[in-house]
Amino acid sequence: MFQRYRARNPGQSFSNMLVFEACWRALHLLFAICFRVRRYGMDRVPPHGPLLVVANHESHLDPPLVGLCITNRHLSFVAREGLFRNRFFGALITALNSLPVGEDRSDLRGIRTFLKYLGERKALLIFPEGSRTPDGRLQEFKRGTWLLLSRARCPVLPVAVRGCYEAWPRRRALPTIFGPPVSCMVGRPIPAEQLIVLGADGALALLRARITELRGELDRLAHPEFVPVPLDPSRAVPKVPATPTAASA
Question: Is the pLDDT of residue 243 over 60?
């Protein structure tokens, strides 16, 4: 059993792993009762190796919801540096694998920390939009995402969440419970090479398109009568170069 837990989060102390497991089991129960959570695509998560998880950002519910979709390993999160100033709360979120980032979101020390973490073959969640959506729509992706993925050169896992904005928009102090369900869908991992060859703009456009597709699939599952709106032609998805096979090499 010990080896199974250590494989989920290499390098972490066993006491922190126990705290992490206990908190996530409690969160699973809370989300199941209060938010009627729906999860899809969990078998698509690579169980080992460095992994950069990118998701859209609708509310404060997003980090735990995405974490509940990744059951075969422990996920690390990015948190504002100010949250670590409280001794008790800082110790708690540290045990939950949170990593501090500067308040201006351009902290180079934070980037180095994330790269070190990924170098230890761990999984890290970031939100390319940089902040919670103000209106429920997907916002533009920040260039810092490209900086991190181009240096980390590890697989990127797109994830979409739905319903979190309706449950807890940024203008509201507390979430609405027992309302419509919140849902999360995991996409297929994208090799780093396929993103890097596209360049910054192309890579961010591809990630945004993949998350948009996952959001549309969640809408279809929630509302079978839903007819998705075609993608804006101005946001054409860049074609990913084919990976050479052994026969064509």
Answer: no
For residue 175, give the 3-state DSSP assignment: coil
The tokens describing 162, both together, are 């739905």
Which residue from 155, 146, 157, 145 is spatially nearest to 194, judged by alpha carbons?
A: 155
Q: Parallel, antiparallel, or unpaired: how do β-strands 156-162 and 183-186 relate?
A: antiparallel
* Domains defined along the chain, listed by start: 2-226 (3.40.1130.10)
> Considering only CA atoms, which of 222, 241, 195 is closest in space to residue 40?
222
Q: Which two tokens stand for residue 8?
A: 């989920």
What contacts 86, CB < 8 A, 6 or more positions away?
A: none
Closest by CA position to 17, among listed 89, 152, 87, 122: 122
Strands 123-126 and 75-80: parallel
Closest CA to 182 of 154, 159, 161: 161
- Residues near 223 by beta carbon (within 8 Å), at least 6 away in sequence: none
Would you say 20 and 163 are in contact if contact means Cβ atoms under 8 Å apart? no
The alpha carbon of 113 is separated from its chain's Cα centroid by a whole number of angstroms, namely 17
Q: What is the pLDDT of residues 214-225, one digit of tens each?
A: 999 999 998 776
Whether the CA torsion 152, 127, 19, 38 is positive or negative: it is negative
Report pLDDT digits (tens) over 44-96: 999 999 999 999 999 999 999 999 999 999 999 887 787 788 888 787 777 77
